[in-house]
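Schema walk-through. Below, the input block comes first and the output block second. Nothing else is stored per chain. Lengths vary across the set, and this one has 82 residues.
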Amino acid sequence: MSNPLRISAGDLEADAIMDAIEDGRRVVITTTAAQSEYEVTLRYDGSVYYCDTPTRLHRHETEREMRTCIRNMGYGATAENA
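--- output ---
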């Protein structure tokens, strides 16, 4: 397994995050919620996308679902901060 890509939320656009996880890398994103910092790990096993948070493992069956998660949770860069 390759080394995980470690970034902060908003550092990369969703396309770059998706490219990394589809290439087999885990993407570890540091983010903040409720004034606490935590890490989320995004990965892909070849058929299912995973978003592993400190409290829950989310499964996404399609690329579109994973992109929606990245956008909704603020993990990827937006037009304002890209």
